[in-house]
Amino acid sequence: MATFIVLLGPPGVGKGTQAKILAETTNLAHISSGDLFRENLKNQTELGKLAKSYMDKGELVPDDVTISMIRDRLSRADCETGAILDGFPRTPAQADALEKMLTGFKGKVDYVPFITAAKDILVERASGRWTCREQGHIYHQKFNPPQKVGICDIDGSELYQRDDDKVETVSKRIKVYLDQTMPLVEYYRQKGVLVEIDGSQPVDQVTENLLAALKK
Ligand code: AP5
User: Fold this and answer.
1) Active site residues
2) CATH for 2-118+181-215?
3) How high is the pLDDT of residue 184?
4) Which residues of the chain carry a pLDDT beneath 70?
5) Which of 216, 6, 1 is nearest to 111 (CA)?
6) Residue 72 CA to ligand 1 centre (angstroms)
7) Closest residue to atom 40 of ligand 1, CA basis
8) What is the pLDDT of residue 107?
């Protein structure tokens, strides 16, 4: 039976960082809705252009578009054994749609690590983030700097700062998260799959706590 893990938490808390580590540890596919939108933007698709108009304002891309993108991604062969979902679902409608999609895999959402940290930590992490243009590897100018400024250690590609990581856009994204995504905490708690993780710790410590919680 396939295993599906949903990483829930505010912008900048470290979902992408932990999802990449978990994907390597578990061999499950890593699906990041934000990365899929950014990939579409890089390829100048209609979906990418539409998504950018919402992302730049710190707002959510409409549910129907987002759900159909994830449905398509989940239908690929690398998701047959399951996946780590990072940034999806983000609204109750997306969570309901995911539940229906996973029945097609005879699966369900098995674990929902809910990673949290205070707002000042989120803003500092997002505004100091550098992302690799080729494959989305994540760095931070203070907490996880690359060996060479502006160059990805792993694939040598250029590092860039996301347009939506300006302090005012991050604050808007946090507000949108509180309004539209927080209801999912109760949704998954009711289902008995939510595990709370302190995201204010250093990366290694968060990973250790995450793996320990998943083993339980
Ligand atoms: P998305 O790309 O999903 O952004 P997000 O959820 O806001 O999350 P982030 O990528 O900002 O942060 P993260 O938690 O992954 O942190 P990271 O590991 O990078 O979404 C962007 C936009 O796309 C949305 O605003 C929306 O418009 C649209 N979108 C996406 N999904 C959607 C959906 N389902 N529905 C509708 N619209 C959607 O870490 C951040 C920084 O901190 C890095 O520099 C990292 O190195 C550092 N760091 C990480 N962990 C630690 C640690 N423990 N200690 C110190 N530094 C750390």
Assistant:
1) 15, 90, 129, 162, 173
2) 3.40.50.300
3) 98
4) none
5) 6
6) 21
7) 12
8) 87
